[in-house]
Amino acid sequence: MERPTFRSGRRGTHNGQFENGQYENGHGHGQRGRGRGGFQGDRVREQEVRRRARSQGPGQIDADRQRGGARGGWRGGHRGGGGERLRLGGGRNEQAGGAERQGMRAGAAGTGARRGGHNGVRREGRAENRDGTNPSFRYLGYKTLEDLSKQEPSVVAITLSSNPGFRVMLDETPMRPDLVQLICLVVSKAFTSRTDRGTLQHLANVIKESKFLSITLLHYVGGMMSDSNQTRRAQFPQHLEHITAILLEVISIFPASSVNTVNMLVTLLQGSINTLRASGVDFLPKVEEKMENLKDLIAHLQEKSRKGTLRSDKDTYGLLTNSDNQDEEQEDFRNIPLYPTPEEFHQNHKPFLRPNRTSQRYTNTHLYLDTHFRLLREDFVRPLREGIQQLLQNQMAMGRNDNPAKMKHFDDIRVYFDTHLVVPKCTQTGLAYIVQFDVQPLKFVRWQNSKRLLFGSLVCLSYDNFESFLFATVSDRDPKYLEKGQVQITFTEESRVKLARIQTDQLFLMVETTAYFEAYRYVLEGLQEQTEDDLPFQRYIVECSTDVSPPAYLQRQGVYDLSHVAKPEHKKSIRPFNSLDVNAWPDMEELGLDESQMKAFQLALTKELAIIQGPPGTGKTYVGLKIAQALLTNKDLWNDVHSAPMLVVCYTNHALDQFLEGIHKFLKNGIVRVGGRSNSEILKQFNLRELTHSQHFKRTLPSHLRTAYNQIYRQLCDEERAIKSRSLELECSLKGVMRETFLERFMLGRHWMNLNSPPMEDGFEVWSKKTPNLMMDWLGLGSTHFQQREPETVNGKEEEAMEEEEDLIEIEEEAELIQAERMIDDGWTIGPRAGRDDKKKRNMEEDVREVEKLMLAMNLDNVDIQAEQNTAEWQVQGHQRKKMKQKIRQELGKSSTMTDQQEQNVVDVWSLSLKDRWRLYRLWVSRYRIEVRTKALESEEAYQNSVDRMADVKRQENLHVLREATVIGMTTTGAAKFRKALQEVRPCLVIVEEAAEVLEAHTITTLSRACQHLILIGDHQQLRPSATVFELAKNFNLEMSMFERLVNMGLPYVRLNYQHRMRPDIARLLTPHIYSALENHPSVYEYENIKGLNTNLFFLEHNHLEEEIKDGRSHQNIHEAKFVVALCRYLLLQEYKPEQITILTTYTGQLHCLRKQMPASEFSGVKVHVVDKYQGEENDIILLSLVRSNPQGKVGFLNIPNRVCVALSRAKKGLYCIGNSEILSRVELWSNIFHTLREKEQVGRALTLCCQNHPNRQIEASKADHFSEAPEGGCTQPCQFRLDCGHVCTRACHPYDPEHKEFNCTKKCEKILCDKGHKCTLTCHEKCPKKCPVKVEKIIPQCQHTQMVPCYQDPGTFTCEEPCQKLLPCGHRCDSVCGSSCSTRCIVQVTLKLRCGHIQQGPCFYKTSTVQPECRAPCKHQLKCGHDCRGTCSRCYQGRFHAPCPRRCERLLICSHKCAEPCTRDCPPCRKPCENCCVHSKCMRECGQSCAPCIEPCNWQCPHLKCSKLCHEPCDRPPCTQPCKKTLNCGHPCIGLCGDKCPTKCRLCDHDDVSEIFFGTEDEPDARFIQLEDCGHIFESTAMDQWMSEVNQGPEEQQVAIKLKECPRCKTPIRKNLRYGSHINRSLAEIEIVKKKINGRKSDIEEKIRILKNQWDENQNIGQIYMPKEDKEIQQKLEKSYLTASDLWILENKIDFLIRVAKLRKVEKEKMLVTDGYRFRQSVNQFMSWLNNTSQKFTDQQVFDLQRELQRLNLLAELNVRCHIADTKDQMSKMQSEVQEIRHALEMPGQFTEQDQVNVKEALKSLDEKFPATGLGISEEERKMIVSAMRMPPGHWHKCPNGHVYVITECGGANQRSKCPDCKASIGGQNHTLDSGNEVATEMDGSQHSAWSEANNLLNFDPHDF
Questions:
Q1: Following DSSP, what letter does each residue of 404-463 receive, concatenated?
Q2: Which of 534, 974, 1481, 1720 fits a disulfide with 675 by CB distance 3.0 to 4.6 angstroms?
Q3: Residues 1679, 1727: contact at Cβ < 8 Å?
Q4: Which residue has the higher pLDDT, 1807 or 1593?
Q5: What is the pTM of this model?
């Protein structure tokens, strides 16, 4: 029979609102996913979080993707998933996410894909199958494959890996031999593509998982031996070569999962080869070589498998190792790993290095490449290596138990403690992680400018003292998050694999090296890939030949047309000419060049390697652009053979933008700029990102790339959605304090209940009102708690300082500048999807906020404290709020948590100290995070694989654009990253700007084999390349660029000689001190003098000392900073614009010292930079702070001419320096500069300030305070200018605003506002108010009080502020003000008498309120366990349901743990994780469950003895007594015994610990020791052996106990030592026997479960209808794989009570009045809350309380049913008083006693006698007697329309009519149909239907009664 339809949520708290899924039909489909209604309170909140989290994806991937998302997904629920998934789902448009999406396809048969998404999800009109394939894919046929085999390998690889049809083809069986051959040909060709790693890995996986590998190839190879066709046999060698190539790739990528299949194929292959060779078929040597490689590899992997070390495909093995004793000097640099190895950290590693040759040629190219590779690798490895070695030595010296490194500064590394992974992040380059580190030791760091954790920096994470480690790079940094100790990192591929095997809550030590690793990595890889033959210009670069030839293309045809380069007036006169003829060139004037520029121009165009030096201001960029224009307008000369672009490489993004903008002036199209860090609007359209998303690009892009992109992007979106749903939850968990409901599952049950029962305070709590912020209150963060604790919190000075900083100027932080050069943005999430992604981001932000609201009780990211209390309850002041947030940040940032044991020992969570509460809170959060992280791991791996494949596709797309370009622009970092693309694009012409700042290795990797022309432009006398290791820079010449080396080696170069920037006075500082000759262009003589100063150039001398910055090696000089800022302020007052002034300093520490002195309101627009980041820039006025001033006379890098050159050459019109000339003079260069300055008195101890208005007044300024004599930029004389208002200017003399048009008069306004003579209260320049605001005394008419009222205001409209004198109805005075309404709730404390009978103090308004306060009277009832109840009257519901006894059991269990249950009669099996383990494995069950014995062979062996038993059996060998011969790390002999693990203590180093007397034998000279592995304590071996051999231990009464032996010192159970394996195994065997008895026999438990299942199934109808949530819960528990006798006891009780409550609910629905039903439902709901309580263990007291309450409910239901019957008979008014009396007895406070039960039954019986329930006018006894006497079965009694009863005999059906003897109405009927008005007399026998047929009669019986 079809079940009726039920809608979910019928009577829930969300009546009518189906938030968590709308179910149109609940019947059919096997009742899958039946809805549950009315989720309440916090549970709804938690589900809403999950719903919102899972709705996050990478956006609305397509509109129809969203529309399809819900279609069909929610009808009928899910297969196999049931209600849980329905609960976690959403409405129609919700996106499914994570693992919960599994099986959500409406049309899927039983199972879904792993993350199957929605059935019907569509993109481009096609839906996906569950495996991600496309149901309407284009089938790959023979012809398609044949055409594909002719394409490039990368095209083949991408097409095969992204076409779902290929996967289908591979699974076809059988397959034609020619198709097998073709597939092998195509796949082997795909594997020759070396640039598409992610794609090849995916393709190899497709092959590995297919039937093609496991079936088809086996048949094909096996068939070769019997094939007699000679033509085909001749082709077999070629086919076998393809097959071996495929097998090599598959087994290399997936060693563990493919080794068996490949091994079978190789065996068959070898047989086929032997057979074919015997028959005369020849094989090429490379086939046999590949076969040998395959066999070696398989043998190696099988050996690993036998040893148990081949665990997964992700394990990395040295499959083919080189000889270890190979001399490193002879080792090819190409075999050296890029990353440092563990050996380098732990050994005294001295790598082989050669210096860069700067004065002689290299002997060969290999030596040249080898030298630069080793030097560059050492430059980034050495700081890390030496830093970690120093860290390890430091730990050894001070002991491992301390953490000395936190207080120590390391020179080469930066150390971050307690680092752990917080949340995964989906980025365009793959999966990244936010990590959290301990920020406490780094409080002094200014993250905005710190060079710590910059983008691209390499970090090394280890948890085992660097025995193993993970490498990662910083992939994003935000100073705001760094202050909280958070940074985003991306792990290397190898480290990602290792990370998956490390537990999710692992703490790491993180070490950062200062080197920018990404640049190193790309260049080092490039050097290893560079072959000697492919390096261009070896003749000059390696051999250093000074005879430079013309470019090869120029030797073929050397005619240039320079008309486009000439000045406009000479364009037509210049004709084409032979460039190799010196005399044929046009004049330099015609080309707009000076003499040196002309020489440089000619050199660049006629030599294949040209070097141009450009000193400051000489126009090297101008010349470079002339050269580029000449080459581009004569493109046919160098681009006639194959289309190749020009490559422009610059060191910085700024220089690259400048150069490309210059090219754009004459080349409007064909430019491609690689890298996203451009500030140029002009170049935006030429950015590689923009171009790859243009319409033109889409039209020209090959179809295989379009297809691959779309397919991979879909997969990315699915995986990203899954990850983000988890990330959102992880992220929120650290943003503030989580609500307790989200942590409930991670708490002990008793702690959850205890948390929800806070102790009573002196105040009051409203009855039945739950504390809104329970977790906040528990953590001491409630408003009252925190205000009381306020003095404990740290003071707010730091916060105030932070607020002040907001007003300081914004400066380009050095950290930001460095990052800008490092970041090469080639993302794939931009372009046409940008709008969509922006929308996604907005949606994400909105949902993040929503989830935060739901998850967090307090969100630290919100401006205001998030609190659910009303305003009156939550009044936290601003300063308290800051302190509260600071306190929470501190606590969340800590890593310490409670241990599980400490948690078990907590009885009352409210009695813990605040410190311990936070430790317990962090434990709960860590468990929550571990669960979420574990669920995310699978999606993370799939996402990374998709990203790798997407990168391959993007690489091909980029190549498509780059090949079409005329000019490609890159930074040196970008060129290193894109080196593989450049090798394929093959630019034949390369211009390197800023070439002297680039390391030679970077320049090498920029060049491709096709390069025919190289132009280097730079200045080696300005900034040089920077190396990380000083020794390598100086002693190995690493800091010398190729530019400088070739100049030194005598290669021809040209230096530009005319400077166009500096006024002559400034230029004198460079010539001849730095440059031998530098001419001034005429334009620099025309600059005006600097206003307000008597000189345009000055060096201010001082001797104020510098200070060292705590973080890093920087310095600051406060005196200089103050002076420079004062001078800057003075110059701004001279009406110079802020943009005209730049402050330069030589140290980053000074940069921020300056910033602190510069409020944004004064200095906004002024640039502040470090010198190194200002090369190539210029400004009108430069203020230079040199910083260094110390007693040691150290000048640091101020002695480097290059840096001095840059510092002194940035100014155009004015240069003002400040520094200690005394120590600088010790440097020869500075001494010469000072000599030049003294010639014109431009150096001294004071700078002269000149007033523009009063030239005769001058000020000698030697320090910042002296500028106060020119307060407004002039002098101290008053201004005396009369203003338009008539007042005099109040300022001192000022040169700015001479007309006073911008001046505001600040004197008091004299205008009269009203007829009473009140004057305006504002200042003169402010607009006067229209109404007079002056306050005067006025009488308020309503109350006659006198108040101060504004002059213009009518007193009748003013609110009187006098205290109200009225009395409230209660007699107390009103607490409001006179002018406001009186308060309605009197809060005066009075004595209240509560309904429960208790008396307590509370607010007066409760006297008249229907709501009662919570009664705080202690319960003190003696519980069934014998203890006093520790609850209160309210907590115990007036004695109806007592709070559980919190007394701890503390009995010792068989497993050696203490029972953690509160006050239990019979201890249940232990729920802790089992601690039993051996060397092979660990038991993963709960402690109380039986352990499966380990049947691996016992590992206990030594050179003298060996055990032959299995691991779980007692050993058959005695312990070895020979001394251990090993040596400890300290160099002393081990004190242990042979075959045992060496103790960590040394007899000499740890003498006191080792010789401490315990057993008495410890101080013997030949004593040997055992260290217990469980606790670490050390004991003398003979005594410990004796201790373990004793039968019993401990007090006499405990000696019979079966338990593990314990440590004599700390009582820790001994489980792990192999020496005592026999004792341990015997004890464990005895314990297992006891466990089985406690848990019950399996057969008994199974029988009990069967009985309970039957009992529940019999009542399932009412269970599903009236309690669907509990129905599902019971069914789930009954299906559990492991249930103990204790679990079954709880289940049995719960099922019994639930069935009885379900029947009550049925009665309530069918047989009660609406009002009675509502009140009854409230009582039942209260009962259910007790029944479902997490602490419900069905103790004697709990069962008693539940039974008494259920008895009360039964009687109440009986009363309500009788009221319903009486109401139908219109009898309610007659029996009202009796009903009220009974109801009062049933609803009285307190427990319903047995006497109460007797009294109520008596009352009900009396009620029946007065008012019979049947309405028959007879008593109940009489009715029973009549029914019994007639002996009629149910369904025969009927009544006439007037209620008179009669009986129909025989079948009970009406077949004749008659007249009622009482009223003459018609009775009976015809054809088994009653006449109108007649009906069944239910009141006689309870039947509902006439009994005229068996089927009809069945309806009269309750199925549950059968």
A1: GGGG---SSEEEEEEEEEEEEEEETTEEEEEEE---GGGTT--TTT--TT-TTEEEEEES
A2: 974
A3: no
A4: 1807
A5: 0.59
